[in-house]
Every structure is written in C-alpha cells, then in structure tokens.
Amino acid sequence: MQPNHAWILTAPPAQSRAALRFGLPVAHAAYRVGGGPHLFRANMPISVRGGLMALDCVGFDGRGEAGPFCQEVLRECSARGYDGILCDFEGRPLPLLAEIVRTLAGLAQKRGWPLYVPEAYGDCTDSAKVLISSALSGGSLIQRLEDAIQRYGQGRVILAIERVAEDFYLPSPTGQGHPLTPAELGQLMEERSPSVFFSTELCAHYFTYMSRENGAHFVLFDDAGSIRKKMQVAHRLGIRQAVLAYPQVEDLLEAILVEA
User: Fold this and answer.
1) Which residue ranges make up each domain of the chain?
2) What CATH number does the domain located at 167-218 have?
3) Closest-CA residue to 161 (of 133, 138, 136)
4) pLDDT in tens, 114-154
5) Residue 71 — pLDDT band, cuts 50, 70, 90?
6) In this predicted structure, what is the pLDDT of residue 2?
7) How far is the C-alpha of 185 from the C-alpha of 252, rounded, in Å?
8) Residue 77 and residue 62: Cα distance in Å, rounded?
C-alpha cells in the first residue's frame, strides 16, 4: 500500500527517536491535560521537532476553562514545530474535554492542521478526524468501519490499530480476555502447537486449546500480516490513514511496512 504516510506512529519520549527512523509522521505522547487545566509535559529530546502532539487526560478532574489551555497547546506546537494534534482521551467523555476538542478543532482548522479525536468525542465537531479502534472480540471490522463512515463521513474516519493478543475462556459472557505479552503468546504457541486460523470478520488470527484446570480457551492475536490486512480493509472503504502505537508494534513494524 502506498504511500507510507498513510501510517502515523504514536510514541513516548523515550522511543521518539526510534520511531522517527521509519520516516513516518510521529505523534509525540509527551503531553497531558493537567489540573487547571494546564498542559503538562514530559521531558522531550531537544532535537526532536515536527510531527504531531499526542495529548492524554489521565487523572484529569474535568475542571477549568478551555480557552487558556488551548492557547498553551498552540504555543507548544509552535515551539516544537508540530502541525497536528492527536487527543488520546480515554474514559467517559467530560464536558470540559469536549469544549477543548471544539476549541482545538477551530484553531487547528484555521492553521490547516489535522486534529484526531477518539470516537467518544467524534460528535463534538464536524472537522476533526475520528479514531475508530480496530480491536474487536466479536462482530465484523468491515461493519464497524462502515457504520463509522455512515455516522462521520468517509473523510473523517481514521483506523486506530490496536495490536490484539488475548486469551478468552469459553464461553466468554463478558467478551473480555486475558491480555498476553508477545513472549507469553509465543510460549503458549510453543507449548500447545495449535492449528492457527484467520478470522476474516475480526481480521485477526486465532486458535483454541483445552486446559485441564479451566477448560476451553480461545486465543485471538495479531501479527504483521493481520495488521496489514486491517489497513487493506480500511483502504478499500476509502479510509486513507491508520494510527499505530509504536510500543505495541515495535517488533513488527518493519514487517508491516515492507509490503505497505
């Protein structure tokens, strides 16, 4: 798939240089909505410039005013040469964060910058790009993306690829599995030597196994090929960009990009 700028990497400061070597846009996950609200910053290498600001809201109490905070964001973007903002806001939507999104959307639009927001804030503005997670334990990725396109419009939907590696008990009434590290997944596959299948609906690999202690298990996981497949599905629907968390895919990225 061409061009490679269809991929955006998010990376914390300690991994920003490693992420930059791939020549892709990097959203620097060094920023947080702090009390006040004020813009909290982690230490960034002085030499790192350009790319996007990635902003989370961990621990934010939801109080304060949007305007002064958004001006802090703009000043930091100017100082670092950023030309885009990615709001990585998790948890339930907060009214002040919704106001921040609306304000940043207007400011970014004036500057020709993209603003990326999670789905929970997708209705706050009609100009921001909406991040739709690829992580599913049921249903269909194609249907998930088609529903998002119908709601937000094709040009606003961005695929947020989340690398999956989970072990589910069967049956799984909650749809929640036990997360596996790459090492744990590798060890499990070595021990069980399972027959691995590919789910077209979920765009992920899977296998099953039996445990004497707790019965049947279903393991769902991604590799470079399944991640490329997710982007191919999105591309066929007219979705031109995907966001990847560099720490999640560091060991797979070269393989992902080799045929991208």
Assistant:
1) 4-163+223-258, 167-218
2) 3.10.50.10
3) 133
4) 999 999 999 999 999 999 999 987 889 999 999 999 999 99
5) very high
6) 38
7) 14
8) 23
Taking the CA atoms of residue 15, residue 16, residue 19 and residue 20 in that order, the dihedral angle to the nearest 10 degrees is: -150
Query: Given this model, what pLDDT does residue 180 score?
Result: 96
**Do 4-163+223-258 and 167-218 come out as alike in CATH topology?**
no
| Cβ atoms within 10 Å, residue 202 | 22
134 backbone dihedrals φ, ψ, rounded to 5°: -85, -10
- Residues with Cβ within 8 Å of 220's Cβ and at least 6 positions away in sequence, in order, are 137, 164, 165, 166, 168, 177, 199, 202, 204, 205, 206
Look up residue 82 and give its two tokens. Answer: 């950023």
Percent of the chain with pLDDT over 90: 86
Q: Is the pLDDT of residue 260 over 90?
A: no
Strands annotated E in the chain? 7-11, 26-34, 38-41, 52-56, 85-88, 115-118, 129-133, 157-161, 165-169, 178-179, 197-199, 204-211, 215-221, 242-245
Strand, helix or coil at 47? coil
Tokens for 58, please give them: 């961990």
d(CA 236, CA 118): 22
Which amino acid, 116? Y
The domain covering 4-163+223-258 belongs, at the CATH homologous superfamily level, to Glycosidases (3.20.20.80)
SS (H, E, C) 115-184: EEEEHHHCCCCCCCEEEEECCCCCCCHHHHHHHHHHHHCHHHEEEEECCCEEEEECCCCCCCCEECCHHH
Structural tokens at position 15 = 């991994």
